[in-house]
Design goal:
Elements: E1 16-17, E2 24-25, E3 32-33, E4 40-41, E5 46-54, H1 59-65, E6 71-79, H2 80-91, H3 103-145
Antiparallel strand pairs: 1-5, 2-5, 3-4, 5-6
Length: about 150
């Protein structure tokens, strides 16, 4: 999903996730793959954990878990590099980056957007200079009339 500053949270999704507040050390005894880049996150390594859950879907699940209960699924993790990038994108205002998206590609997309904006700013600055040069003779004529 491309970078966007607006989120569409309406709808019934297959599962939901909780946003981590900070980094943590991987405490489980088995390694787990980063859900963004696929790097192996070993026990004791710095990462972020995204607890995932869903709501009951059938009458049987409602009877077992209740209507307002979350059914927790296996958590997803980001390796330290992807966590850094994910937090950076959120600080820039991109709140809609899901944990399973490849944040490395999204950062490349962000860098390309910034290059394009700088290129456009240069063109706008050049256009402003050209407009000021075009307007300069008009100002000279107005001064000579007065």
């Amino acid at each position: 999903m491309p970078l966007t500053c607006s989120c569409d949270w309406d709808g019934d999704y297959a599962w939901y996730y909780e946003t981590p507040d900070d980094y943590c050390q991987r405490e489980e005894s088995r390694a787990k793959r980063c859900c963004s880049c696929g790097t192996l996150v070993k026990p004791g390594e710095t990462c972020t954990v995204f607890p995932r859950f869903r709501f009951p879907r059938s009458d049987v699940e409602f009877k077992i878990y209740g209507e307002e209960t979350h059914i927790y699924l296996a958590s997803w993790v980001h390796c330290e590099t992807c966590a850094d990038l994910w937090y950076s994108l959120r600080e820039l205002g991109y709140e809609c980056v899901a944990p399973g998206e490849n944040v490395r590609e999204l950062v490349q997309e962000y860098a390309a957007m910034q290059r394009e904006l700088r290129r456009m700013d240069v063109h706008l600055a050049q256009a402003d200079v050209m407009l000021s040069q075009l307007n300069a003779p008009e100002k000279h004529q107005e001064a000579s009339r007065a």
